[in-house]
Design a protein that fits this description.
The complex is a heterodimer of chains A (about 400) and B (about 300). Chain A is an alpha/beta fold. Chain A contains 15 helices and 8 strands. In chain B, a hairpin with a 4-residue loop joins strand 7 and strand 8. With about 300 residues, chain B is an alpha/beta fold. The chains are: A alpha/beta (about 400), B alpha/beta (about 300).
């Protein structure tokens, strides 16, 4: 397991406190019987602002990492589906209480696999597909996505029987901007030579963004930021290797790679170019003009997933993030059969090479059988980076 | 197993070059592989090597190697100044009485190949359950870049082993058979499971009047199938000469020939030390370095003797 960072000595561990709230909120979602509709959404291109404005309870559906759940999902899929999508189906079919509680699912058409999977989910819970244009620079794409959001708004109004006002959307844009901003600021504390949290802890705290009521989450994150910022920032002992993790979704429950990188090999993941790390918090939505338009534009303009085109937008934004956080190396991890990040590997790796940051590509799934092989690869990469770092440090000291 | 030379004077290996890895005190490199475990002991002007099949317990295998080599070198366990472990079994390795450290086989194979072939830039290592392509810095022997096969036996020793079994011949003979091929059989599948069924149907369709020739052609087909897989790996790091072939499968003359053919490049001629020992040799080189300055590399921390 990953080593928790020193929680600052006295008082209760603020991260543990947050985890307790997340667990409580998940349970409350399952137990609630107040008539408020419960929806789940797939992918970060589904607008939380709109769900929250509709007054529904909402959670992101991104559990994964358990091979038993994957094998349940396999009954519905072919082997060439990634483990994340199989886990998603497995959670529905295997009666995961969180998934069983849902009244409706909103699936952004992120990749073709997710689209197919959403059609199967329809057997368990009614699904609405949100069509996502991939050529985000085109005005026609922007208009189309806006139309999709108008349709989504109507669908939510029909589900709840309540109107979603522009004011409510506007209010939620402001609220979520604040949330994204504070999560970005927490992440930026990892720019320190001695990051106050591990990569695994950051991913764990980010899950709150997808499970906790945003009004409840904001003060918790603000408090957490203050506590983490106050932690000792000076580095004692050797500087740990700084890594970026880039690639496919890292599911809630999938800490395999982080366990190896941080737990077994002692490096630190300080930034993520994937959709369950800091990447979704890099942008801010417009707070003036038509709120629904601000929403559809903002969601298209977020730091892009590899499903968007041109792909160079994704690789370049990942590269900028790596430079901004001064990483020693990048671990590019994609789930086997991922049609976005698997096929995009060459583009990403070539770009990382171009900007001079060593990168290692690893294809992975949720099974344990390749743990040894993956560890060997990652460990050799880390040996390489340590040599490089020692050389650089020596040069620096010598200068 | 054919007799492999296992004791060397350093000058036999590196000629007049200044030794980068001479060790005044005995140091040991252990390469605990998936199929075979190898060890190299360096002491003064001598290098000793040995190998045994990997047993169920990695620690017992390691102890057996240690015992054999210290005896051969005429030193005792207490004389050993440092051990570096590598290979799949490295993680379970533990010594309370000797300073030791683990280093990955990628780094060790690069270093082992580098000291034997100072001009090496590209290394192909094919072992029992994985194959790797490593780009190495000819100045230092450090890894510049590497690629490793997926969770899959294609292009590894395991694939050849399975094929030999299916053909009913000894693994050691598989390469020799393939050299006699007149028309290598097309084996398109690179998956062991599917290649198996291809082989079964090839065997059934083979020339009944000349089973030996048919066997040779299938054996060659198997090698070509593996070689293509390895070529794909290399495509990503490139082929800069000198090109070196290391790991257990480098002893297979059929693979040697077929790889040269598929890659359109020549391997550097065999070194005096069998390349199955490249990983253990690299480990022993690191051991000699750590023995001379044991606290330099704090990552991961060397475990020092507690007794």
């Amino acid at each position: 397991m990953t080593q928790p960072s020193n929680p600052g000595g006295k008082g209760e561990d603020p991260l543990a406190a947050l985890q307790a709230v997340i667990a409580r909120e998940k349970q409350a979602f399952i137990d609630a019987k107040d008539g408020r509709k419960k929806i789940g959404y797939l992918c970060n291109y589904a607008p939380q602002e709109l769900f929250n404005a509709a007054g529904v309870r909402h959670v992101r559906l991104f559990k994964g990492g358990d091979t038993d759940v994957v094998s349940i999902g396999e009954r519905f899929t072919q082997s060439v589906f990634c483990d994340f999508t199989k886990a998603c189906l497995g959670s529905f079919s295997g009666n995961d209480p969180l998934y069983k509680a849902l009244d409706r699912v909103y699936a952004a058409h992120s990749c073709n696999t997710i689209k197919r999977v959403s059609e199967i989910i329809n057997q368990f819970v009614p699904v609405k597909l949100l069509s996502l244009p991939k050529l985000r620079a085109l005005q026609s794409s922007r208009d189309f996505f806006h139309e999709e959001f108008i349709d989504l708004r109507k669908d939510l109004e029909k589900l709840t029987g309540n109107k979603i006002t522009d004011e409510a959307i506007q209010e939620n844009i402001v609220l979520y901007n604040k949330l994204r901003h504070i999560l970005k600021k927490i992440s930026e504390l990892r720019k320190r030579a001695n990051p106050p949290i591990t990569g695994a802890e950051y991913l764990d705290l980010v899950t709150g963004f997808y499970y906790i009521d945003p009004k409840l989450a904001l003060p918790l994150y603000e408090d957490l930021y203050a506590k983490l910022a106050a932690k000792e920032s000076a580095l004692t002992g050797e500087r740990p290797l700084r890594l970026m993790m880039a690639g496919s979704v890292v599911a809630d429950g999938d800490r395999r790679m982080l366990d190896i990188l941080e737990g077994e090999l002692g490096s630190r993941v300080v930034v993520e170019a994937h959709c369950t790390g800091v990447r979704p918090f890099l942008h801010s939505l417009r707070e003036n003009g038509d709120p629904l338009r601000a929403l559809s534009d903002g969601y298209l303009d977020q730091a892009p997933c590899a499903k968007m085109r041109p792909l160079s937008d994704s690789s370049e934004s990942a590269g900028r993030l790596a430079q901004e956080y001064s990483v020693d190396g990048i671990i590019y991890v994609y789930l086997k059969f991922c049609i976005c990040y698997g096929v995009g590997t060459k583009e990403f790796m070539t770009h990382f090479q171009k900007i001079g940051i060593p990168a290692l590509e690893v294809s992975s799934d949720y099974s344990e059988s390749d743990h040894g092989q993956i560890k060997t690869r990652v460990e050799a990469f880390i040996e390489m980076l340590n040599e490089r770092k020692d050389n650089l440090d020596e040069q620096y000291i010598g200068a | 197993m054919t007799q492999i030379k296992d004791a060397f004077k350093l000058s036999e290996i590196i000629g007049e070059r200044a030794p980068k890895f001479r060790s005044e005190h005995p140091v040991l490199g252990l390469d605990l592989g998936s199929r075979a475990s190898k060890a190299v002991l360096l002491h003064k002007d001598f290098l000793y090597a040995t190998q045994i099949p990997t047993g169920y317990s990695m620690q017992e295998t390691a102890d057996e190697l240690l015992e054999k080599l210290t005896q051969k070198a005429g030193v005792t366990r207490q004389d050993l100044r440092y051990i570096v472990g590598t290979g799949y079994g490295r993680i379970t390795l533990k010594y309370d009485d000797i300073a030791y450290k683990v280093v990955t086989e990628i780094t060790c194979h690069a270093m082992g190949s580098h000291v034997l072939y100072p001009k090496a830039r590209t290394i192909i290592d094919i072992g029992g359950q994985d194959s790797k392509a490593i780009k190495v810095d000819p100045e230092s022997g450090k890894v510049v870049e590497f690629v490793m096969n997926d969770k899959c036996a294609a292009g590894t020793g395991r694939f050849l082993e399975k094929a030999a079994q299916l053909l009913g011949i000894d693994l050691a003979a598989l390469g020799q058979y393939s050299l006699k091929a007149t028309d290598p059989s097309p084996i398109s599948s690179q998956c062991v499971v599917f290649a198996e069924s291809e082989m079964i149907s090839l065997r059934a369709r083979g020339k009944q009047d000349n089973p030996e020739e048919s066997l040779a052609n299938i054996a060659a087909g198997i090698h070509y199938s593996s070689a293509r897989r390895v070529k794909n790996l290399l495509g990503r790091v490139g082929i800069d000469s000198d090109l070196v072939f290391s790991g257990g499968v480098s002893n297979n003359p059929g693979m040697w020939k077929v790889l040269e053919d598929v890659l359109g490049a020549k391997f550097a001629p065999p070194a005096p030390v069998d390349m199955i020992f490249a990983g253990a040799l690299g480990a022993s080189v690191f051991a000699s370095r750590y023995a001379s300055k044991p606290v330099h590399h704090a990552h991961p921390k060397p475990v020092l003797a507690t007794a």
